[in-house]
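call fold(seq) -> tokens
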Amino acid sequence: MSTFDDLDAFVATRRCAGLALSPDGTRLVTTVSELSADGKKYGTALWEIDPQGTGAPRRLTRSTTGESSAAFTPDGDLLFTSRRADPTAEKPTEDRTALWLLPAAGGEARPVVERPDGVSGFAVARDAGTLTVVTPKPVVGDAEEQREAREKEGVSARLHTHFPVRFWDHDLGPGRAHLQRCAPPDPADPEARYGEPEHVAPHGDERLAGSAISPDGRTVAVVVDVPDPADPASWRRRLELHTGSDDGSGTVVVGDEPGADHEAPVISPDGRWLLWVRERHPRPGRGTAHTLRARSLADGTERDVLPEEAHQVRGVTAAPGGDVVYVVVDEAGHGPVLRVSITDGSVTRLTASGAYTDVVAARDGSALYALRSAVDAPPTPVRLDPEAADQEPTALRGVTTIDPLPGTLTEVHATAADGTALRAWLVLPGGASAATPAPLVLWIHGGPLSSWNAWSWRWNPWLMAARGWAVLLPDPRLSTGYGQAFLDPATGAWGELPYTDLMTTTDAALARDDVDATRVAAMGGSFGGYMANWIAGHTDRFAAIVTHASIWHLDGFVGTTDASFHWRREWGDPLDERERYDAHSPHRHVRSIATPMLVIHGDKDYRVPISEGLRLWYDLQRSGVESQFLYFPDENHWVLAPGDAKLWYRTVWAFLDHHVLERPYERPALV
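ret:
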């Protein structure tokens, strides 16, 4: 049995996320998720990786509640967040997250920032050590008093006066996130904590959505969600610079305009540049577009670093010196790191393959570090030359260990009817040949602004390959990494070009002699689930269809999702654009569905609410379609609990084995 034959082994594999590099460049820290002793959940801990790639990784922290969000102070101490109890407290508690410090010189970690409702995020000024912390605060009253009063009265209700009320998988309120600034502790006192917090933002009904702090700690870039006057239930993102006190004086608005969000700020290590992403809002026939902007903090002049429509920007890291920024983008099934000049816009692609995240730069400019993954490689820490083009990185010794993949990865290319080039990844199981062709599952990604370009622990095709399946991972229209012309025509028209692209790419895969054209299934989640539902109503070429967290009734989805205003921009007002909604809603084609369908949905999914899955299931049942409904009362848009994840795969396999491979149906155990 290997990592991919054995679901227990797969879910128990250690997984890393995030990187932090010490000021002297000798310590690289990542957060590692690991299965708990009882196998029912994941815990997190901080591990140290040798930047030179020779030393073995070593665990730094250990607690029942876990640790995450590592960052270094200018003195080399390690900061992290944790819900662990403070053993020195009069009444130790694990009911809220605090900020902890692990001294570089050795010794036990100690809490250095504690707030009544916890700490949900923080950042450290590179030179001064000043801290910004994100902490919930009630709309009215004192945080501690309100929390205790609600608990005493058994109150869980929230009163909202502005949309939205939910986000992904959690309810918003009764407090709002606020950004506070704290002076660094006295270095002469080994038990000192950070100074009393000074309020930074927001100052009204705005909602905090991101921030960055300058090296000297004096300037803070803040992103706030502000009401959009064009739509009372809509928000857009405004970027501000805060240099004054907690009354809001000294605030400069950098970016605020109808039809765009200004977000993801970064302040360069030399304090000269503010960089951020301007995201143009979508509308029917015109997709989202990113512009990377830069503002001189000396004179306020601004420029485009990467112009609109050039790339979908996924990450920005400023170089330690000079006018250079490292940008991660999507590109044709990869996620490369680009070296971009802030002053003249010249671009060098540093990486030849793979998808990169969490790029950090050594202070002396000698190296970059990042997590690299690919469809056929889990996230692994690597070292990059900061200037060499199209390089393969140096892999460091990480914590993730997997067995050899049970197959191979290749590409499939096709041409759409309008001449557009299409591509997909194809996972082939070991032993697939003309003599023993493999059954195929078409697996459609979510998003839709996404791409099959990285490893996924949640949607892993190699688990399918281990069971003998070939897996087609296509990037149809609306996928990122292929230019703006690839996005625009399908924006607000999901049921047209994306569907024909998927069928064209499937035809190309089935033309291979090592793929069995007589045994084919389709599956997808979120946007991929929408497409699975659309496919079900427009063709009977697939023997079975699996649809997870899927959109079924387009108008119902847009009105109940956690960010309705985003989708209303793309699709238009359902009262005024009725024809568009009707033309692209999968539910209108239920009477054409003949393919057996497995519907999967989590009750805590606020992005695609459970109402979509419930109505889909009801419509299939009343229409006499052979169907099953796998319901997760405690899961969200994804299925994260280890036991539930294993059950998800076993249920999918049982369904596909029966309907595609014509094996006797075996109901999965425990359901």
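The CA atoms of residues 2 and 588 lie 44 Å apart.
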